[in-house]
Automatic annotation (TrEMBL):
Membrane spanning residue stretches: 12-31, 103-124, 136-161, 201-220, 261-285, 305-324
Membrane topology, record value: Multi-pass membrane protein
Annotated InterPro entries: BPD_transp_1_N, MetI-like, MetI-like_sf
Species, as recorded: Natrialba asiatica (strain ATCC 700177 / DSM 12278 / JCM 9576 / FERM P-10747 / NBRC 102637 / 172P1)
Lineage: superkingdom: Archaea
Gene3D superfamilies in the record: MetI-like
Family note: Belongs to the binding-protein-dependent transport system permease family.
Location relative to the cell: Cell membrane
Protein name: Binding-protein-dependent transport system inner membrane protein
């Protein structure tokens, strides 16, 4: 199968996934108790006003008509209007996307910077204290709930150690909502040369990124370790050692390089998972991303906004998966035959 046909197949599968998500979200809204009109105008409003609202939002139409209109709106990018704020859902979603992407990418960078060297050390010093320490770290990272870890990091660094850090290091990690985004900070740095906004952004994102990336770090560490151990047992390593090539060169140029293909695949797939899994972390740290807005929509039972956010997250996850499949098919053409 050619790469083009392979990607078309993946794209069609992605369309089916998105359609399934849209259908499930509509079904959940249809079977949930309560009248959406009461959420918009309040239960004490006059019946005439509630009838006008139902007609305005198409809530008085048969369920199949509502479903068709709902799917058509999603296909054209019209997610409707928020019940709570009467703003376009598309606008409310897109304005929170940069913050979520910043957090997911920062968590990925932290995970890679820590996990790959740790996995290399663990594989190179198998059954030694360094290996046991890396294995214990991986176990703790996978087992620790990120909401608990986030709360502990806030208590430790933003509360108990705030004054000592200010005194001895000259900075501390803030407790409140961030005041500047990455794009704004970079623009300020480029146009004025002032780096204060960028440093403020770094201070705000450090603890959330560590919290979100801990599980990812542990997983990549274990993947790197197991991949390198598997590569060390292959004949080409023995052959290169017999030629007198230095062990360090074998480890990094050959073994680690061959281990990176599955790691790159997992990196791409987990980026989509991080975007969807940032809900709890954003809530704990009051981070102004999609997760924070989704929790607000859930509390207000704002169905159009909830649907828009979840469909957007699913769309992002599918697109990232297709991109990873394309990269993997380029690196290893054998996958196109699967």
């Amino acid at each position: 199968m050619s790469i083009g046909k392979f990607l078309v197949k993946r794209l069609l599968q992605g369309v089916l996934v998105i359609w399934g998500v849209i259908t499930i979200m509509f079904a959940l809204r249809a079977v949930s108790p309560g009248d959406p009109a009461n959420l918009i105008v309040g239960p004490a409003a006059d019946p005439e006003i509630r009838d006008q609202v139902r007609e305005q939002y198409g809530l008085n139409e048969p369920i199949y008509v509502q479903y068709v209109d709902y799917v058509q709106g999603m296909v054209t990018g019209d997610f409707g209007y928020s019940f709570q704020s009467s703003r376009e859902v598309t606008t409310m979603v897109l304005e929170r996307v940069p913050a979520t992407l910043e957090l997911a990418i920062a968590a990925t960078i932290i995970a890679v910077v820590i996990a790959v060297p740790l996995g290399v050390i663990s594989a190179s010093r198998r059954n030694e204290p360094a290996d046991y320490g890396a294995t214990l770290f991986s176990l703790l990272g996978i087992s620790t709930p990120n909401f608990w870890l986030g709360l502990m990091l806030i208590l430790l660094f933003a509360v108990f150690l705030q004054d000592p850090m200010e005194t001895y290091l000259g900075f501390s990690f803030p407790q409140g909502r961030r005041t500047v985004g990455f794009g704004e900070a970079v623009i300020t740095l480029v146009t004025t040369g002032y780096a204060g906004d960028l440093l403020t952004w770094v201070r705000h994102i450090t603890l959330p990124a560590i919290t979100l990336g801990t599980y990812f770090t542990a997983m990549i560490t274990r993947l790197t370790r197991s991949g390198m151990i598997d590569e060390f047992g292959k004949p080409y390593v023995t052959a290169t050692e017999a030629k007198g090539i230095p062990y360090v060169l074998i480890r990094y140029k050959h073994v680690l390089r061959n281990t990176m293909i599955p790691i790159i695949t997992v990196l791409g797939l987990q980026l989509g998972t991080l975007i969807g899994g940032a809900v709890i972390t954003e809530t704990v740290f009051n981070w102004p991303g999609l997760g924070d807005r989704l929790i607000q929509a859930l509390n207000a039972r704002d169905w159009p906004l909830m649907q828009g956010i979840i469909v957007f997250i699913a769309l992002g996850f599918v697109l990232i998966n297709i991109a990873v499949d394309a990269l993997y098919a380029t690196l290893d053409p054998r996958v196109t035959n699967e």
